[in-house]
Amino acid sequence: MSDEKDEKLEKEKETPETEALPPEDDDTSDDTSDDTSEDTSDDTSEDTSAKAEAPAKKGRRRRRGSAETTTSAKREAVAAPRDAEGRVSVRAQAKYVRTSSQKAGLVLDLIRGKDVNHALSALQFSRKSVARDVAKVLRSAVANAQQQDAFGGDVARLFVSKCHANNGPSQKRVRPAPMGRAFRIVKRTTHLTVEVTEKAQVIKAVGESDSAKASSRQARSAKQKTTTEKAKV
Fold this sequence. Notes:
Blueprint: H1 2-14, H2 27-60, H3 67-72, E1 89-97, H4 101-111, H5 116-124, H6 130-146, E2 158-167, E3 171-176, E4 182-187, E5 190-198, H7 206-232
Antiparallel strand pairs: 1-5, 2-5, 3-4
């Protein structure tokens, strides 16, 4: 066994050691380096162009507080609400009034179609407790009409064109009853709506009124003459 080991060692010493050769330089490495350099140059050129365009785009944007936006965003004058005939009509509403719509409807029937002054006087002398709430809504509608630009300024020309009471949410409570029973209590609410409209102002010419008065006078004088003649006969 020892002889075999010695022979192996001698063979290893006799074989010349092969020197490690450096890796051969291929053309692929040169190509990749050229490609990477070209890509980086393209990317840098694109980045510089994008950066150059960025300030130009920012300059085109409009800020919220700029003069251009404020001039273009000027609010136009809001037209006053009008009905089908072109008259100014304004409404007021009171929600969740602690009463039923049926009781409120009885009071609203009293003022529908009346002038504002007559309606307020009718509500003032009404015995219904809902009349106080309806009067508040009516005064609110008149105040809203006075704020309109198209309003003539004469409150006496306003009348109640529409008024109604809608059902609101009901509060349900329980009342104890004998023999372990319970009675349901429903506390109803209503939404009151009152709409006020301005009457059309009729303007008559001066000449027409004078001619009408003259014609009426002539008719009266003619009637008087006929009556006197009949009395003489």
